[in-house]
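Below is how a single chain appears once it has passed through the pipeline. First comes the sequence as given, then the structure the pipeline wrote out for it. We keep one example in the README because the format questions we get most often are answered faster by looking than by reading.
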Amino acid sequence: MSGLVLKLGPKERVLINGAVIENGELRSRLSIVTPKAHILRLRDAIHPEDANTPVRRVCYITQLVLSGDADPEEAQLQLLRGIEQLSQVLTDPDSQKRLGLATSAIIEGQHYQALKALRGLLPREERLFAAARR
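Resulting structure:
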């Protein structure tokens, strides 16, 4: 793997190994070449009180790994169990594809890619909860 490339908008913030980095006035790209660096876009961050749905909880655990607040090996089983539970409910082909990508990424230690796949499920989850409330 050649590393992670972050494309940042003006004034966008990212957490890298515990330090908050703020981009300048212009768009930029950062290439992260250090393996296993803890990286989290703050615009993607889910606050603990917002981890109140099944998909958000799995995203939050993944986020804790990315921020360095959870050990990847200890979180792996919890993440895989959460994804397995989601796969029992989100049975459409696109959701299954995203869950498969997230599973593979977690097994390979690519938590940023896992979070990216899981975040794609958030709008679908919201629609399902909205439909259930009607």
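The first helix runs from residue 54 to 67.

See the next section for the split statistics.
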